[in-house]
Amino acid sequence: MIQKQVRHPAGTFSLCACAYEPRHILVLGRTARETSSDTPTERHMLECRCGRSTAMHSSLLKAEAEWGPVMSQRPLTLPAPVVPLRRRSSRKEARHGG
Fold first, then answer.
1. Regarding beta strands 2-6 and 42-47, do their DSSP bridges make them parallel or antiparallel, or are they unpaired?
2. 34 or 21: whose pLDDT is higher?
3. Contacts of 12 by beta carbon, 8 Å cutoff, 6+ apart
4. Can you tell me the distance from the alpha carbon of 1 to that of 29, in angstroms, rounded to the nearest whole number?
5. Which of 28, 54, 83, 97 has a beta carbon 3.0–4.6 Å from 66's, enabling a disulfide?
6. 47, containing H or E segment
């Protein structure tokens, strides 16, 4: 079984809770315990520096689905509206007449 990292442009995958983007690991072949022909010979997983990783999947799309959505592709929420406060004038207004 051979594992190698596949490089992608920054922002391809959703950031981990530790604020780093995961690496795409391509796994080629099978282990000695995986003798059945049902196990694909090419699998994908996402792995972060902090140790968080997905299981090995037959496609990158399935690994991405397990990891979570890309935050940069989510619709942005609008900030709560800020109501400007009126300042009372510190000047005393001059009264006319009198």
1. unpaired
2. 21
3. 21, 70
4. 5
5. 54
6. strand 42-47
